[in-house]
C-alpha cells in the first residue's frame, strides 16, 4: 500500500505546560501597537461602523417604503 493508506498512528499531544510555553513564546513575537496607533485605529473603526450603520439604515428605510408602496400598505403610520 502507499503512504496515503489509513494509519493507526495517533497524533502526538503536547502537555499543558508545553502548550503554555509555546503560547507565551508566540505572544512575545507580537508587535503591540503604541497608544497613538491604538487611538487612531479605534477612531477609524468607529467611523467605519457609523458609516455602515447609516448606509444600512438608509437602505432599510428605502426598501421598507418601497415594499409598502408596491404592496399597497400605508407607510405614514
TrEMBL record:
It holds the Pfam family SecE. Gene3D superfamilies: Preprotein translocase secy subunit. Keywords: Cell membrane, Membrane, Protein transport, Translocation, Transmembrane, Transmembrane helix, Transport. Its main location: membrane. The chain crosses the membrane at residues 38-59. Belongs to the SecE/SEC61-gamma family. PANTHER family: PROTEIN TRANSLOCASE SUBUNIT SECE. HAMAP family: SecE. This is Protein translocase subunit SecE. The lineage of its organism: Bacteria, Bacillati, Actinomycetota, Actinomycetes, Propionibacteriales. The gene is secE.
Amino acid at each position: 500500500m502507499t503512504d496515503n493508506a489509513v494509519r493507526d498512528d495517533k497524533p502526538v499531544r503536547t502537555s499543558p505546560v508545553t502548550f503554555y510555553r509555546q503560547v507565551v513564546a508566540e505572544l512575545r513575537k507580537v508587535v503591540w501597537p503604541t497608544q497613538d496607533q491604538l487611538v487612531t485605529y479605534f477612531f477609524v473603526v468607529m467611523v467605519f461602523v457609523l458609516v455602515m450603520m447609516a448606509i444600512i439604515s438608509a437602505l432599510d428605510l428605502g426598501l421598507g417604503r418601497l415594499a409598502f408602496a408596491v404592496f399597497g400598505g400605508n407607510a405614514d403610520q
